Amino acid sequence: MENGGGVVYGWRVVSPGADIKSALRRSEMPVPRPGPGELLVAVDACGVCRTDLHVTMGELPPHRPSVVPGHEVVGHVAALGDGVAEFREGDRVGVAWLRSTDGDCRFCLSGRENLCPNSLYTGWDADGGYAEYTTVRADFAYRLPTGYSDEELAPLLCAGIIGYRALTLASLPPGGVLGIYGFGASAHLTAQVALAQGARVHVFTRSPRAQKLALELGAASAGSASEPPPEPLDSAVIFAPSGDLVPVALRALDRGGTLAVAGIYLTDIPSLNYDRELFQERTLRSVTSNTRDDGRRLLDFAAGHHLKVSVDPYPMNRAADALADLAAGRDDGAAVLRP
User: Fold this and answer.
1) 93 and 87 Cβ atoms separated by less than 8 Å
2) What fold characterizes domain 7-156+309-338?
3) CB count, 10 Å around CB of 127?
4) Is the dihedral of CA 324, 330, 334, 335 positive or negative?
5) CA–CA dist 284, 129 (Å, integer)
6) What are the pLDDT digits (tens) for 200-218?
7) Could you give the CA distance from residue 45 to residue 132 in angstroms, rounded to a whole number?
8) Is the pTM of this model over 0.85?
9) Using CA atoms, how far apart are residues 38 and 77, in angstroms rounded to an integer?
């Protein structure tokens, strides 16, 4: 089986829609074979990301019929495709959202491969980690830091990376004040990075459990977005997929502040009042995927600053339950599947 062939179980998005239990089906599938330059990865853990929820519910248009979702994969190399020299069987590796780019467009050549028009994504364009095996191009696989369990590492591969990029694009000044809107898998990691960099962090979330976790991690305050922050924000990041938060966060910014929207999906943004929300050189920007360099930087940071990763483990045969719990906000941390 380690060289391809055989049958295993995994989950496929067979009918995208609001009914998660109908949209996702557990089924038999062949063990994939790694192509030239690829790795066959035996999945040891796979994080459950909100993007998986958007794919399952059809909020992101289907790219591959009956795709296997999952793009926060921690596993070990089970087989090597032709031409792979930088990995060996048994190596621990990570598989993330960005699966491939063309490498020669103007965005790739200028260090902005996340904007490549020909980019492909794990769990959307190609089968991902809600299964016992997946594949990844060797040059898009990550080497992982020691000192973390498989379950702790999995959320770093999207929640961590996207949060790191969002924090970078939010232009937080040294010792600055950061606002975080929504406090789930990505936000609780981003808060720790900002705190380690010397920022003061204010968290806005409706969940009492999330507020408690934010304060335990070192946030200066944690409350509802309906209340103004205790002090003007230099930067802010929105993780909740709610466009209604955009004008709220912009009003909370100090002059010259920057708001980054971290999600791949957002409900419609209400009309903005120029004087109250954009004037005085406030900046609003989106975050699109990530570069491999973002991933390496986040994993290097995690190697030097041990991040507390709040995890809710599920067996792989409860993937639909994990997504339903994510949709309902029932998880305290990042849901992670184990085969």
Assistant:
1) yes
2) Quinone Oxidoreductase; Chain A, domain 1 (3.90.180)
3) 22
4) negative
5) 33
6) 999 999 999 999 999 999 9
7) 9
8) yes
9) 10
